[in-house]
Amino acid sequence: MAARPNLPALSTISFNVNQKLSQGSYSRTGTFILRRDDDSTVTLNTPGLMAPSSRGVIPHLSQDQLARVPHLGWIHVPFENYLQDKTPLPTICPDAHPLHKLMSLKTEKHIVSMSLRDPSSANEMPANTAEFIQTQCIRGCRKVRPPDYISYVSGANPDIVIAPGDTPFTPPPYSQKRIEKSITRTLTWLTQLSTGLAPRPIFVPLMGGTNINARAAFSRGSIMVTGTTTSTGPLVERLDETLAGYVLEIAPIQAELRAQLGKQNGVVPPPLPTTTPSARAHAFATNVLAAPDPLESDILNYAEDIDTRLPELVRSSLDPLSLQKPRLALGLALASPHVMLGLVEQGVDLIDSALAIRCASAGVALDFVFPVVGEHSGDKLDVGHNLYDSRYEEQFSSLSDKFTDASSNPPSSDKPICYCAACSPIWETQPIEHSKIDELTSREGPDYAPAYTRAYIHHLLHTHEMSAHTLLTFHNLAVLEAMMAGARSTIENGTFEKELRVFEAIYDGGMRALREAEKAWRGVDRARGKGRLGREKAEKEQYTLEE
């Protein structure tokens, strides 16, 4: 392998918060700018989206298909995906930006952040210690010491690094002593990273679980006087001086709230769905995905509980911290658009789009718009369509009722156009000019093909075609990006909170369509393979008894 070129100077970031238009509101817009050593910049408007990745790709999107999602400017990489090798691949990639190279990303368009653990993972893990952090890869658990992580960061050279946190992944609830250890260890590891990696941009996960006092104590601990010295020499009085931003990890909070809900009801809730792609092999081996579904009331109560508890937990972490630094929210695969908008209401600037990928994996096409257009009466609307359902077998319309496609002639004036590769695919093949006498008319702008229909994707899902999930990923990401664009415009107009209340009143926050789709996914996935005859026999006997 060729020798790696000298690493360029570290990138720098700046974040400008626009002046808030209303008093007493935490929602805000801003501009995040990453500047590289060659003076090129990557600019993101906030609130905005980030994309999670797994083992070098965004799930369901190949590297060449990423070009069809132009609005995704921030990709997050969990480094534990590469720990199956003794020497992780990014650390030996012969490029100045190894992660960009491995994922076919462009340095002038994409920002890459890196964390040790997958923020969407809530799988049970062995306990951390003061000396090492437990990680999970396809070959099982790996122990990583903080100095090892510093070495991995130096080798992989991400634009932004997220410090490791001592998040407990043993079954909750957690004792006060365990929470105190979590805070102390995370601050200790943060000090080691700050001294070893400065002036690289470092984001810190905000610890404390579901304990409001613990979360506030961690935030205050990061701004207390420490008197440490970085590797470059200058004295750092407060850890917060070395930090570029803050991270809220939502998946562990959801797992802990779910356990608390079960304890209140006197039941033990089934395990949360497997959300991290890196753990799917383990999930199939242990049949986690086939676990019995929780009761309908349990899910609805859980969704309501997370919606009501999350704002106060977020505020307890953010109130002591600087307003001039960006806030990230990661691990939202088990959330809903309501939770995402609720985080924006609390002042979170960048939110991961794991929900779009989870819906695409389950066969759900998102279909909502923010702010809401028009009026609605009656039952709450679903935020998407379960395309496994047989009612879509002969529906030859586009994926969304709230958006129109670019090939419509004329396009609907009261609906925005969805330019995703599923709703507005572009003819990529152009006529070939074979000789000078061939006179080909030049076209201005792209030539849009008809949209893929619900019936077609319904067919793809039931025949196990991977392209179904790819098309749904294109569409779902576009819907969430439109939601964020709507959030930015309403914040600037001073109507965000009002529009959010309307959205919550019209759309179902329990994600009923997603839950039904995941049940259908399991049925289709288990329709073939080992044990099929036994399952069919049992179903036949059940139907006979019912008759």
Automatic annotation (TrEMBL):
Record key words, sorted: Transferase
Keyword flag Transferase: yes
InterPro entries hit by this protein: Queuine_tRNA-ribosyltrfase, TGT-like_sf, tRNA_ribo_trans-like
Limits of the tRNA-guanine(15) transglycosylase-like domain: 28-219, 310-503
UniProt region (Disordered), positions on chain: 528-547
GO biological process, one term: tRNA modification
Name of the protein in its database record: Queuine tRNA-ribosyltransferase
Organism classification: Eukaryota, Fungi, Dikarya, Basidiomycota, Agaricomycotina
